[in-house]
Amino acid sequence: MNKKRFSSPSGYLDSVAQSNAYSFVPVSLAAEFLNVTPSMINDLLKNGSLDAVVVNGSRKNWKGVLVESLMTYTKNKRTSVTSMIKQIRHILETAAKKKRKMFYSDLMEQVGLSYQNPYHRRLIGECLGKLSAQTFKEKNYMLSALAVLKSTGRPNEIFFELANELGALDDTQKEKDFYQSQIKKIYGKYKT
């Protein structure tokens, strides 16, 4: 973890007054901003993904996340998500050509994520959601329909919620019928 330490509040405030380079936010605010838990922020601080600022006072110490590192992390994450979406799209298009579905866990493994990690599950969900929106806009189907749960052989409920939000699934349509129509469209598009 990269840390900048200040020996007093006045030393910190003097530094910030000269340059915003050491502005920081509390861990809880950083967690809210990234939509993760405070313990995830602490993990990101420990592994060096985020930088910490520590101010030692005479009665109290303050620790937070350097704003600049938070913004850099967010920018890098966006780039990483975009890259991962391209990778997932290629994997699912390859599966479509073979008329196959993929378990979420297998897809995650192929892009270097672990199904056991809650953050990774959120990340794959974010990527699949964005991919669904892209392919629905471009081709009128949700390519992520090929990513399924082992227990049901169908996508999770979030897939159907997104389908509703996108206007792909209307209130009169049954989820099962909608899902089958998506698979039919996808397999039809990727005939070999």
Automatic annotation (TrEMBL):
Superkingdom classification of source: Bacteria
Protein name: Helix-turn-helix domain-containing protein
